[in-house]
């Protein structure tokens, strides 16, 4: 079994910073990439940032210059440093991992339970 556990959510004032972390554990063979998504009320889940095993990163235009995604050397941990937070960043943030589990011939997307980030104005 594979499990993704997030941490670091909470309440922060506009202009402040917050750091999210996510660790994948279980019967993992290979991790291809990890990412952070978010979903605000009344909106679709959107990609915030992603990072591949080789270190290639992608950011949503709305967070460029403010958020930074990084990976641990083991490639089973992903972090999201969020700076200059805005009220519109308020959402549930979900960790995602594209990986192949032990004994599986294909890659599959796994999701964390989500962590609430609330930015007050």
Largest sheet: 7 strands, mixed
N→C terminal distance: 40 Å
Average pLDDT taken over every residue = 96
- Outline, from the CA principal axes? elongated
SSE topology string: EEEEEEEEEEE
From the alpha carbons, calculate the radius of gyration and give it in angstroms: 14 Å
User: What are the segments in which pLDDT stays under 50 over at least 5 consecutive residues?
Assistant: none
Q: Give me the number of helical elements.
A: 0
Structural class by secondary-structure content: mainly beta
Number of E strands: 11
Strand content: over 45%
Helix content: under 10%
Could you describe the 3D structure shown?
By secondary structure, the chain is an all-beta fold. 0% of the residues lie in helices and 60% in strands. The strands form 2 sheets. Strands 2, 4, 5, 6, 9, 10 and 11 form a 7-stranded mixed β-sheet that branches. It has a 4-stranded antiparallel β-sheet with strand order 1-3-8-7, with no helix packed on it. The protein starts with a strand and ends with a strand.
What is the element layout, followed by pairings?
Layout (H helix, E strand, L loop, with lengths): L1 E6 L2 E4 L4 E9 L1 E12 L6 E7 L4 E3 L7 E5 L5 E6 L8 E11 L6 E4 L3 E6 L1
Parallel strand pairs: 2-11
Antiparallel strand pairs: 1-3, 3-8, 4-5, 4-9, 5-6, 7-8, 9-10, 9-11
